[in-house]
Amino acid sequence: MERREKNEPLRELPRFVSAEMRDSGAVIATCPLGHRSLSMVQSTRHDVLFTSGTLAFLDGYYNEAVSTMAAALERAYEYFIRIALRGSGLDSLGIDDFWRGLGSQSERQFGAFLVLWRVHTKSRFPPDDDERRFRNSIIHRGHLPSADETYQWASKTFARIKLISAHVHVFWSKEAQDELLASFDRQRADVPDLPASSFMTVGIDDLTTTTISAWFDLVRQQQEVFRSLVSLP
User: Are 69 and 204 within 8 A, CB to CB?
Assistant: First the structure.
């Protein structure tokens, strides 16, 4: 860590420093004087991913927007599974053990989601065959989607995630809070030796944002605020 000698004039420090988010969700920042701090994200993984995909769309990167939003949807399925298992009485260790049994095979994970959705909602989750084909054409065959194609696909993906979030909010609010606290534990375990704070990103789980156009407007406004802040002298 840098030390300032006695009577040495203070130098002007930047208002902001850049930092990357780790896979755990932890964000570690280091100031020009060498001080490190940890910020923990109060958001679900599908929330962070869908926001990232939205930013890609707003910047004109449509392939990246689709692939990231598709990952967000898969993580929303995982989120529902974890919350449903909590509602059934499993603790974090039991849930992690169950999830390991599904491995990295997305079809197994999707199948587990469909079963739990049917059991708990007594309804069939809306089919998404066309959306899955569109996503696969981009990820596996290199299709270059137009802005309109991407927007329409994003709208349907947004609606699916909102459907999951709404059900969790109504029936499992306590379990959702417990899952958030468990994510804090994972972030803290990733970097145990730093002072910590927390922050919340713009959230797709916010029930007041009900349409994809309203969501895009919200993220665009937040992006403009951020860019104005970092450009301040």
Answer: no
